[in-house]
Amino acid sequence: MAHDSGPAAVRHGQRTSGWLTFAGTLAVVIGAFNIIDGLVALFNDDYYLVGDNRIMVFDFTAWGWFWLFLGIIQVAVGAGIVAGKMWARATGVFFAVLAAIGHLAFLQAFPLWSVLTIAMCVLLIYALTAPPAGSRG
């Protein structure tokens, strides 16, 4: 009598990782936050703390487009991570670093939101780099 050898992922030789599922979900959440940041920067400049509409080099309109495009890409990458795509893991690390640096520059405009997003980006980078090699979400 044959016994079931375990979950389908084990039978196909790939290990599943809860960290990658968490990372994919977190990438979608960070992407959604960045989309919200972008839409607010585009449609309501008075929402942010900086009064002269200048943060580092760009104005709120430029930052709005940056956050909007970055958020859309991060949502797509998050879906790829959950689907177990290796390209999405590498791309997710790159865009998490880019978002953390961007929020560091955006810190003066909205400090609490930026600090929260930077912390989530660091957690996302860890979740994407910690799982065993070859594991899927």
From TrEMBL:
<feature type="transmembrane region" description="Helical">
    <location>
        <begin position="112"/>
        <end position="129"/>
    </location>
</feature>
<keyword id="KW-0472">Membrane</keyword>
<dbReference type="InterPro" id="IPR055568">
    <property type="entry name" value="DUF7144"/>
</dbReference>
<protein>
    <recommendedName>
        <fullName>DUF7144 domain-containing protein</fullName>
    </recommendedName>
</protein>
<keyword id="KW-0812">Transmembrane</keyword>
<feature type="domain" description="DUF7144">
    <location>
        <begin position="19"/>
        <end position="131"/>
    </location>
</feature>
<feature type="transmembrane region" description="Helical">
    <location>
        <begin position="20"/>
        <end position="43"/>
    </location>
</feature>
<feature type="transmembrane region" description="Helical">
    <location>
        <begin position="90"/>
        <end position="106"/>
    </location>
</feature>
<dbReference type="Pfam" id="PF23636">
    <property type="entry name" value="DUF7144"/>
</dbReference>
<feature type="transmembrane region" description="Helical">
    <location>
        <begin position="63"/>
        <end position="83"/>
    </location>
</feature>
<keyword id="KW-1133">Transmembrane helix</keyword>
